[in-house]
Automatic annotation (TrEMBL):
InterPro entries: Cholesterol_7-desaturase, LigXa_C, Rieske_2Fe-2S, Rieske_2Fe-2S_sf
Ranges for domain Rieske: 27-146
Name used for this protein in its record: Rieske 2Fe-2S domain-containing protein
Transmembrane segments: none
PANTHER family: BLR4922 PROTEIN, IRON-SULFUR DOMAIN CONTAINING PROTEIN
Keywords of the record: 2Fe-2S, Iron, Iron-sulfur, Metal-binding, Oxidoreductase
Organism: Pseudonocardia xinjiangensis
Keyword Glycoprotein: no
Keyword Metal-binding attributed: yes
Length: 457
């Protein structure tokens, strides 16, 4: 369990909070690129780490992320006009342009500069002394990332592979979840729950396909192993970006099966997949009580089967849930208000939860804890080791930053910190094989895939 004080530190992310100050040292996904697809298109509201902002793509195609309230009298710039200035009309995609407040016509560019103040005398220089708070942005992998920290602490963008991702592989999506970001993320760092929460009885009817042996198994066999051994042993291995951990199970044939998931400070995970995977799953705080669950392809698929690298978890035989795409803003049909459409008869006879959507099972588990769970009342076991380690890494980093300005972990710009090596993996181990090698640059399967695609990490 955590003390009430540490739980408060861990979960509060607004300006000036201990954890909020830590999170602001990292480039953070603010919105999907396709939410502002068109130069001169409509602005959109963005709430991020407790701050109310507006994003827009100006007539020159540049993206801006600025404070929502106009610095003049506070009118929401969400209702503003995305246009060129009256005194310097845009010609052939060049010239001054930005978001104009509907109240008095003050206009701000993507950098927050006031570029037009038509309600003041033409000779006035007042506009040169007014700025809207604006944050730098970086467009990569279908996402608009931003840096909310102080300019003098900004480090280079952490490129997990998205900067060089070919357009045909760009895919990003997000789902809203009304709960704190940490409890949402903890589900991705919990290898034990897949043996319970997501189970369905028809797994027992899947025939043995012969892949229960050392090497790369089928997705069908993976599900059968989760059901066979429902108390995995966890091992955590610290890395420069956070850690990787293995959920270790014994297969029906007596072999050792590992699912390896990665955690990158502060909110990134790479969930286990066969044979390895680099798809990013991120848990970005909207504020203390709401979260965006963001998924993005980081690197091209390097395996014959698998979206974003790795075999698809949902390709299992007899799969009872509806397959859904992860691109764009994913709507919420299954919510707390309708009890996630839980069917008690289905729960008794077909699936473990009776909830008809795979991801909504996770959402139920984390959202039903309440907006911010009181961790001082929990009782943790051996399968919670990865969750415990994540909390300790974040709390230690946040406290050190607050106490003595210590540099946070896993920042870009440090020699040897190549974020493209952040991957997950899954395999049945050969005798004596070290799971820590799987999915890394030292893994022969990774090397073979890189060679086959002509890519290097």
């Amino acid at each position: 369990m955590l003390s009430a004080e540490d739980n408060e530190i861990l979960t509060r992310v607004g300006p000036g909070t201990i954890m909020g100050n830590l999170l602001r040292r990292y480039w953070t996904p603010a919105l999907l690129a396709n939410e502002v697809p068109t130069p001169g298109g409509d602005p959109v509201r963005v709430r991020l780490l407790g701050e109310d902002l507006v994003a827009f793509r100006d007539l020159n195609g540049r993206v801006g992320l600025i404070q929502e309230n106009c610095p003049h009298r506070g009118t929401s710039l969400y209702f503003g006009r995305n246009e060129g200035t009256a005194h310097a009309p845009l010609v052939a995609g060049e010239g001054l342009c930005g978001l104009r407040c509907p109240y008095h016509g003050w206009q701000f560019d993507v950098d927050g500069n006031c570029i037009d103040m038509p309600s003041e005398p033409p000779t006035s220089t007042f506009k040169d002394r007014v700025r809207a708070k604006a944050y730098p942005v970086h467009e990569s992998g279908g996402l608009i990332w931003t840096y909310l920290g102080a300019p003098d602490t900004m480090t280079p963008f952490r490129d997990f592979g998205t900067d060089s991702l070919p357009p045909e592989y760009v895919s990003a999506g997000k789902t809203f979840s009304p709960c704190n970001w940490v409890q949402a993320m903890e589900g991705n760092l919990d290898s034990a729950h897949i043996s319970w929460l997501h189970q369905f009885n028809a797994i027992d009817d899947i025939p043995d396909d012969g892949s229960d042996k050392p090497g790369y198994l089928s997705v069908d066999m993976s599900w059968k192993i989760w059901r066979h051994d429902r108390a995995p042993r966890l091992e955590v291995h610290d890395t420069w970006y956070g850690y990787r951990y293995a959920g270790i199970r014994t297969t029906p044939g007596g072999h050792t099966h590992v699912r390896i998931t990665g955690f990158c400070v502060p909110y990134m995970t790479a969930v286990a997949s066969i044979p390895f995977r680099s798809r990013l799953s991120m848990f970005v705080p909207i504020d203390d009580e709401n979260t965006w669950r963001i998924n993005a392809v980081a690197q091209p698929p390097r395996n014959p089967n698998g979206y974003g690298g790795g075999h698809e978890l949902f390709d299992v035989t007899n799969y009872p849930y509806e397959a859904r795409k992860f691109t764009g803003i994913r709507g919420r049909r299954w919510t707390a208000e309708n009890e996630y459409e839980m069917d008690r008869d289905v729960q008794r006879n077909e699936t473990f939860t009776g909830i008809p959507d795979f991801n909504s099972q996770d959402l139920m588990a984390t959202e039903s804890m309440g907006p911010i769970y009181d961790r001082s009342q929990e009782h943790l076991g051996t399968t919670d080791r990865a969750v415990i380690r994540m909390r300790r890494i974040l709390l230690d980093a946040a406290k050190r930053l607050a106490e003595n300005g210590a540099t946070p972990p896993a920042l870009a710009g440090v020699e040897g910190h190549d974020f493209r090596t952040f991957r997950s993996a899954e395999k049945i181990l050969e005798p004596g094989e070290d799971w820590r090698i799987l999915g890394t640059d030292d893994d022969p399967t990774v090397q073979e895939a890189m060679l086959a695609t002509g890519e290097q990490t």
